[in-house]
């Protein structure tokens, strides 16, 4: 079954297409191209698998391709510069459309290149990981990492359309599927208690790649994300809730070295830390913490930070989080399952005690 959701942003709106085989469907691309010139950006793993299908769908358009190296460690300004090199070498103008074909790494970099090239050109997201289909392809956060912090350089730039072909998940390694499930669980925790309950019952089916379960998880995740982004495109308020687990998670990713822990793995541990901290300050009961830890574990994800990363180091890295305001750390914590809030009331001693447990 094919589904179409909308991300409504005031006078602008864009579709999220979800379904089996959509990567080959010209109707998912053609109406969203400004001109006839397209640059498809992918990486050395995804290119051989799916570039042919995208080129087939684009037909006789004037299309160029660019293959980037694969890995979180390549989500850098240097690599984005290769996109600018390609655009300029092929003399792309302002009517260019970039197509990001791959996971969140390709999507974040291609989107950032689109935000910057000639001060902004169009781009489409064609996400091929679960994580990208449920999260990174939607909402317009684009950017790259810095040695000192995750996603520290970037821009808000919305895609013109998102084409999530669920069939591409067939080739995704199990570890990457699990990583995507961390962001899926996140939506249940922050704003969708019923979805959280559904996930508790469906985790086995999701990990077994049951097509109906995956399609449902992707659609409900995208619906939740689209609603949050529509209400707060540039994270002036409630969009920060999408960062549940990420202050811990980003610190873990940076601390162990980009790509050592996958983003979703670090978020998985971060979700459990956020739940545990919420319990320690009396906001949620221990049953809710256990349910969170059990679901994260059932997804095949870590439930605690790496034992060789000192608590002091995690705290140091958390201090560069983008939610820091006036030097104060702000964290997303839980008032209940399905009910997240941002708070600045956690002090260093509480965090140290949590991380040293
Ligand atoms: N912009 C946002 O809102 C947002 C949201 C969440 C995460 N992110 C970012 O996304 C990144 C993580 O994305 P990710 O988890 O997709 O990782 P990724 O892009 O590194 O992809 C994971 C791996 O799977 C491979 N791959 C992709 N599709 C495949 C397929 N269909 N079959 C086989 N292999 C495939 C990739 O080549 C890569 O090796 C992080 O940098 C994170 O910060 C951004
Ligand atoms: O879309 C958002 O907003 C998110 O926070 C989604 C997160 O899953 C994602 O990892 C995002 O890139 C984190 O944002 P950042 O602003 O903390 O870098
Ligand atoms: Zn994330």
Automatic annotation (TrEMBL):
Pathway stated in the Swiss-Prot or TrEMBL entry: Metabolic intermediate biosynthesis; chorismate biosynthesis; chorismate from D-erythrose 4-phosphate and phosphoenolpyruvate: step 2/7
Binding-site list for NAD(+): 70-75, 104-108, 128-129, 141, 150, 168-171
Residues that bind Zn(2+): 183, 246, 263
Co-factor: note: Binds 1 divalent metal cation per subunit. Can use either Co(2+) or Zn(2+).
Reaction equations catalysed: 7-phospho-2-dehydro-3-deoxy-D-arabino-heptonate = 3-dehydroquinate + phosphate
Domain 3-dehydroquinate synthase C-terminal: 180-324
InterPro entries, per database record: Dehydroquinate_synthase (IPR050071), DHQ_synth_AroB (IPR016037), DHQ_synth_fam (IPR030963), DHQS/DOIS_N (IPR030960), DHQS_C (IPR056179)
Keyword match NAD: yes
Cofactor(s) needed: NAD(+); Co(2+); Zn(2+)
Enzyme class name: lyase
Coiled-coil positions: none
3-dehydroquinate synthase N-terminal domain mapped to chain residues: 66-178
Gene3D superfamilies found in the cross-reference section: 3.40.50.1970, Dehydroquinate synthase-like - alpha domain
Compartments (UniProt record): Cytoplasm
E.C. code: 4.2.3.4
Keywords in alphabetical order: Amino-acid biosynthesis, Aromatic amino acid biosynthesis, Cobalt, Cytoplasm, Lyase, Metal-binding, NAD, Nucleotide-binding, Zinc
UniProt GO molecular function: 3-dehydroquinate synthase activity
Superkingdom of the source species: Bacteria
HAMAP family: DHQ_synthase
NCBIfam families reported in the protein's UniProt record: aroB
PANTHER family referenced in this protein's UniProt entry, alphabetically: 3-DEHYDROQUINATE SYNTHASE, 3-DEHYDROQUINATE SYNTHASE, CHLOROPLASTIC
Function, in words: Catalyzes the conversion of 3-deoxy-D-arabino-heptulosonate 7-phosphate (DAHP) to dehydroquinate (DHQ).
Family membership: Belongs to the sugar phosphate cyclases superfamily. Dehydroquinate synthase family.
Protein name as annotated: 3-dehydroquinate synthase
Species whose genome carries this gene: Thioalkalicoccus limnaeus
Underlying gene: aroB
């Amino acid at each position: 079954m094919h589904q179409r959701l909308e991300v409504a942003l005031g006078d602008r709106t864009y579709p999220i297409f979800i379904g089996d085989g959509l990567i080959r469907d010209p109707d998912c691309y053609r109406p969203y191209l400004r001109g006839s010139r397209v640059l498809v950006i992918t990486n050395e793993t995804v290119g051989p698998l799916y570039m042919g299908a995208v080129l087939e769908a684009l037909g006789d358009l004037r299309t160029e391709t660019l293959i980037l190296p694969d890995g979180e460690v390549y989500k850098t300004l240097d690599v984005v510069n290769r996109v600018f090199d390609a655009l300029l070498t092929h003399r792309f103008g302002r009517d260019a459309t970039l197509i990001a074909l791959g996971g969140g790494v390709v999507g974040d970099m291609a989107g950032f290149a689109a935000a910057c090239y000639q001060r902004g050109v169009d781009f489409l997201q064609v996400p091929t990981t679960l994580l990208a289909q449920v999260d990174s392809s939607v909402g317009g956060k684009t950017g790259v990492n810095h040695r000192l912090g995750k996603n520290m350089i970037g821009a808000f730039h919305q895609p013109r359309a998102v084409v999530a072909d669920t069939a591409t998940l067939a080739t995704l390694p199990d570890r990457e599927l699990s990583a995507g499930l961390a962001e899926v669980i996140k939506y249940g925790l922050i704003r969708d208690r019923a979805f959280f309950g559904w996930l508790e019952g469906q985790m086995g089916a999701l990990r077994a790649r049951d097509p109906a379960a995956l399609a449902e998880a992707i659609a409900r995740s995208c619906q939740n994300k689209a609603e949050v982004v529509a209400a707060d495109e540039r994270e002036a308020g409630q969009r920060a809730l999408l960062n549940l687990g990420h202050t811990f998670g980003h610190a873990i990713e940076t601390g162990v070295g980009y790509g050592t822990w996958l983003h979703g793995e670090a978020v998985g541990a971060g979700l459990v830390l956020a739940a545990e901290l919420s319990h320690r300050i009396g906001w949620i009961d221990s049953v809710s913490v256990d349910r969170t830890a059990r679901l994260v574990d059932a997804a095949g994800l870590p439930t605690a930070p790496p034992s060789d990363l000192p608590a002091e180091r995690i705290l140091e890295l958390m201090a560069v989080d983008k939610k820091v305001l006036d030097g104060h750390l702000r964290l997303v914590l839980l008032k209940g399952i399905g009910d997240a809030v941002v708070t600045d009331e956690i002090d260093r001693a509480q965090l140290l005690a949590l991380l040293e447990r």
